[in-house]
Amino acid sequence: MKQRVAIVGAGVSGLTCGVVFAKRGYRSAIFAQDIGQRTTSGAAGALWFPYDAEPVDKVIAWALQTHHALVDLSRDSQTGVSMLELRSFSRTGETPIPDWANSLGARRLHPSVLSSEYASPARTEASLTICPCAFKSGFTLNVPLMDTTIYLDYLAKRFVAAGGSIHGNVRFEKLEDVGREFDLVINCSGIGAKTLVADVGLEPHRGQVAIVPKIDNLSCAIVCDDAPLMYAIPRTNDCVFGGTNELSGNCAVDPTSTSRIVAECSRVLNIDKPRVLADRVGLRPFRKSGVRLDRGRLRDGRTVLHNYGHGGSGFTLSWGCANKVFQLAQNVR
Ligand SMILES: Cc1cc2nc3c(=O)[nH]c(=O)nc-3n(C[C@H](O)[C@H](O)[C@H](O)COP(=O)(O)OP(=O)(O)OC[C@H]3O[C@@H](n4cnc5c(N)ncnc54)[C@H](O)[C@@H]3O)c2cc1C
What we know:
By secondary structure, this protein is of the alpha/beta class. The chain has helices at residues 12-22, 56-73, 99-103, 148-161, 193-196, 255-269, 314-329; strands spanning 4-10, 27-35, 81-90, 107-108, 122-123, 129-130, 137-146, 165-167, 184-187, 202-213, 220-224, 230-234, 238-242, 246-247, 278-287, 292-297, 303-308.
């Protein structure tokens, strides 16, 4: 008989694992302190883009598998996944196009989109006028965008439709506290693993975003990883302005950061500052030694599969990691 599976965590990692197990007939339940929008996943951008996660070789392999799965999902408008042009810029110099981006058809952006020599703002192919002095180089490629306001609900509904159940407001002090009726425990607790399994290598990389109304003519995502981190991501009903990345476990909104984010995005996009509809903070679960995806034993003898520490790439790695978790679950006694 198939094992009964308990998944701890209802962010993108837990929900995706839930779908993978439930659709293959496993009796699965998700338990979490917070679900959906209240998780770190609910605060994310969430573009497919490998960022702030280790180790690079595994991250790229999982990211490419996830890319494939998300392209498939983007064919169904109900999922909240769509394909979007991403323009990745640098303020400081010529950035090489990473191999993984080349393999997905990335192209260098023409200097007329970027050069500070141009007296008037440069009009991009996407009919957006970006500040002529903002960037020195960049590349473009099409990537999946997950609108978190739709996608997390989509995953939850798909999990429940496949027979799974979701239990919120459940906080475990340790994984052994998961009910004994479950033979297999999957740990998708994000930054919560710091206390849940006493992982001292897990660091909170705090991120803050401002949600603003839709920006006219912004039909591609603008991203710059050089400090100060900046991105503007158009979604179905609004636009996400970011961002920050600092070592901090503080989940409170910092109004100064919001002002800085809105000012920098507006400067780059050459627009008046929009009003802020909401601001969100999340703690990227960054793990110095890399994403934890392995099999172990709880003190009571049950098997546990860990799947946490995805840093700034939880969405980007979600399907690749969930499929790996499923592989690890095979032949478990
Ligand atoms: C501002 C920002 C922008 C980002 N942008 C992107 C992006 O563009 N692309 C991308 O791929 N990634 C992005 N990320 C990173 C991404 O959001 C994370 O990697 C991802 O959300 C991690 O998902 P998770 O499911 O592992 O953890 P979480 O979403 O944090 O979920 C953890 C779950 O575990 C539960 N939990 C924790 N401890 C316990 C406990 N003791 N008992 C019970 N339940 C517990 C929580 O309640 C929650 O349900 C961004 C992050 C931030 C903050």
